[in-house]
Structures are given as C-alpha cells and as structure tokens.
Amino acid sequence: QVQLMESGGGLVQPGGSLRLSCAASVSIYSINVMGWYRQYPGKERELVATITGSGKTTYGDSVKGRVTISRDNAKNTMWLQMNSLKPEDAAIYYCKAQQWWGQGTQVTVSS
Which residue from 18, 17, 19, 21 is spatially nearest to 6, judged by alpha carbons? Predict the structure, then answer.
C-alpha cells in the first residue's frame, strides 16, 4: 500500500504562486505515472498534470503554461508549482500514484 501526503495548499491572492508537495510512504522509483488532480465541489476530479518516471509531462488545458510538475525519485516526492493563480484554480488538489490517492490539500485563490 502506498500512502501519499499532500502539503503546500493555502490561501493565495490572484496572480500569486503556490508549490504543492506530495510525499510518498514508499520508494517511487518503480512508480511510472504520478499525477496531480483537482476537484471542485460537486464535480468529478480533473487532471491537472502527470509525470512519468522518465520525466515526460502532460498538462490539463486550463493550466498549461502556468504550472510545472516535477518529481524526485530519491526523495519519494512530487511537486506542483503553480503560478499566475486564478480564482478558478481554487479547488482541492490531490496527488495520485498508480491507484493510490492522497487526502488532498485545499487551494484558495482570493483577494
């Protein structure tokens, strides 16, 4: 079983930045695809970004150019750097590794 712990969420003003972290309880060397997803109240989770073990990345259309996903296998950690945040980026952000999900971290974008 893989436990994932997100951190780094919080309140930020529009145009601001946040860096989310996802720490895994096991080595992620053997985990190919990891990703970040977000969920609005009453909505399904949507893709934000994914990254493979070799570093190949994909991004959701709504965040392209504003977020960067990265991972460090030696630290068992994945990050999501979010810049130029908009009010519509406010959601609960989840990390995922294989079939495992973290508990989520709240991002609020408001002035």
Answer: 21
